[in-house]
Amino acid sequence: MSIWECCELLNSVVDDSDPDLDEPQIQHLLQSAEAIRKDHPEQDWMHLTALIHDLGKILLLPQFGALPQWAVVGDTFPVGCAFDKSNIHYKYFEQNPDFNDPKYNTKNGVYEEGCGLDKVMMSWGHDDYMYMVCQANGCTLPPPALFIIRYHSFYPLHREGAYKQFMNESDHEGLKWLNAFNKYDLYSKSKVKVDIEQVKPYYMSLIDK
Prior knowledge:
GO terms for molecular function: inositol oxygenase activity. Keywords: Ascorbate biosynthesis, Cytoplasm, Iron, Metal-binding, Oxidoreductase. InterPro entries: Inositol_oxygenase. The protein has eight helices and no strands. It has helices spanning 3-9, 25-39, 44-52, 126-136, 143-151, 155-158, 169-187, 196-208. The mean pLDDT is 93.
C-alpha cells in the first residue's frame, strides 16, 4: 500500500477520542501539513511528518486487525515505572496490577535516569505502530520527525513535563520539534477544506523523496 492510499483509507476511520469528528481524517492531516508549510516553508520533512503522523489509526480497520479504540488512540504513557498523576484518568491506573508492584511502581522503575526514551516501553497505540512502519521501510525522515511520530500522543511528557528523567540529549532536541508541531496538530482544524487534488503533487513529491 502506498502512503497516499493509506491517507485515503484513513477517511473510513473514526477516532472516538477526537472531538472534531465532522471532517474526513485526510482533511485533518492536510490542514496540519499545510499550516506548517505556510509557517515553515523550508522544513519539508515536517510537512510530510504532519501528513503521516496519524496513519497508524488504520489499526482500527478490519483489514489491519480491528483493534479496539483503547488500544489505538488516546494518550500514551510509559510502562515499567510509576504511573505519573498527570496521566489522563489517573484514578483508573490504580486498577492496573503494576500499580502496586514494587518492581514497577517507583519513579524510575526498571529504567535508569537519562537512559533515553527509546529504551522506555510505551503503552501501545497508533504512534508506536507508525514509528515501526517507518523504521521497517527504511524511512529517511530525520530523527525529530520520528520522535514526533512516536510521541505525539505522549501528553504527560510534552504537556505536563512528566517522565523527563528518562530523556537524553537527542530526546530534548526531539521535544523542541514536537512542541512546535503540536500547535498545528491540535489547533489547525478549520472549516476551510484543503483542495486535495491541488496539493497532492507536492506531497507525492515529498513521499518519493
